[in-house]
Write a structure and sequence with these properties.
The protein has 580 residues and is an all-alpha fold. Among the domains are: 69 residues, Tetratricopeptide repeat domain (Serine Threonine Protein Phosphatase 5, Tetratricopeptide repeat, Alpha Horseshoe); 99 residues, no CATH class. The chain has 29 helices and no strands. Helix 6 runs antiparallel to helix 17 and helix 22 packs parallel to helix 24. It is elongated, with a radius of gyration of 29 Å.
Amino acid sequence: MDRAIAFLERWGIVVLVVVTGLAYLPLLGNEFVWDDTALILDNRLTGDLVGNFGEMMRADLWHTLARGSADSGYYRPLMLLSLSVDRALFDLDPAAHHAHSILWHMACVGVLWGLLKKLVPAMPALLGAAIFALHPVQIEAVALVAARNDAMAAAFAMGAMLLVIERDARPWRLAVAAVLVWLGMLSKETAILAPVLLASIDCARYGRPVKWPRYVALSVGVLGFFAMRHWAGVGSAGLPEPGNFESFWPTLPLVVGTYGTLLVWPWPLTPARHIIWGPELEWPYYVGALVALSITVYALREGRDRKLGVVGLLWALAAWAPTLVATVDKGLMGERYLYFPMAGIALFIGGAVPLVSRTWKVGGAFVLLSILAIELRLPDWKDSRTLWQEAHEAYPTPYTAGGLAFYVYQDEDHREARQLFYEAVAGDPPYRDACTHLVMVGMALNDPEDAVELGTWGLKERGCPPLAETMTFYGLALASTGRWSEAVPIVQGADRDPFGHALLVLASESVRRGDFNSYEQLNAQWKGAVPLEQQVERLLRLSGEERAHTVFLAYSEGRLRIVTDPSELPEGAVLTPAGP
């Protein structure tokens, strides 16, 4: 045993980093998943590293999408650059993107171990690093390329702390540490915690913060980021609506219980834990929180270095607390929100466990079980549909039904998607983000009557909000069934026309009235890939407007002047020459 311990003390971190990389190797066979699709495949900037470098350095992260997005307040240019480097070297190869993310996680493991080894003995440091490296709750942050910035920010922040962890850090270390914090914040804002965490560690080691140049160096990196953000003109992230906070507080015990359980019993794992859909899951999470609390109290009472244990807990809480804003805003309790907090848990464990005793045995059992969990979980991240299918099977809710339905719809399995969208909106409470697709899927099935029925049910009985996306689709469905008197006011009342459906309905209505001058004006505004002429012709035919359809065909073929039989014209039609 002595030889084994000696080996682990010397080479354990090398083994751990290699094992971590091998554990995540199956990711190389997976596709882009979830937010990867938007941030990578739909990104208008990352395809040209040199040409778009300047714009990437000034861009709101989610403004870089080709289809556009609202202000997020996320200024993370280094994340964009990392994606751009992937595309420059490997185009849109998912395997290369995943490999890059795995390397960042491996880098975090190595840096964290170096930091822990400065604070605790070798074996506890290795155990803490192993928990960070292989805890199953880390899978989401590694498997989701769009979450790579968590690992980037953590690696830079911990690297900066490692450089100045000793009191008498040389000037070059101070300078490099400032740069690393700056790079970390350009990846994700969580790196701002580096000066605070360093001060906490100093308090545990020396009883107070010491050697102020170290804090100045880390703070210079933070200030450099804010100066650059101001130069870029990226606005701050907006806070959630006050009503969101009011509805959040009653769910706080569930949130705390969920994360506590994920630390001590991380299974099943799912990206779809939501504060609105999940009250029936409360009691297991209360048990999980109680177990986590009991372990914490025991470790703090019996631990070898309780001061460092407290600092580790403070680290975890400080890194986790800001994620509650995202939970309030979006409702999600993301496993990736625990990525940087797990480094604090690693320090807590490192300060609590004994020097040797059973540490290596407990650590070995943890590593084996964690690797098994990772290998069982990674296939779920094969693609978005697989991920959400698993989520819906693990914890079926209206939210998971809607999430799965979206990807089923993308795969053009419209009948299955219809059932899932219906399930999402019919739930209690209804998942109203599925309302637009509830109408869309009826049209995709070439059943406008069903689309109207679903839309009417959703808007009048399930509280679907009258968003422009929903109402313009609903108006198109009404027009397709010949209910023009209802369709026209609805599309006219929409504040936007994101899909061009309002313009299509109004253009078709102009043809019905024989007002081809208005039709031509609307045609000049059309930006769709399919010519408006073809869309109008199809809509008139689908809605049963035979006379208007005949007139329009004559008009579009330049033959309107030979249409002389009034019976061929819709009531009130005005004959407008097609031109010389």
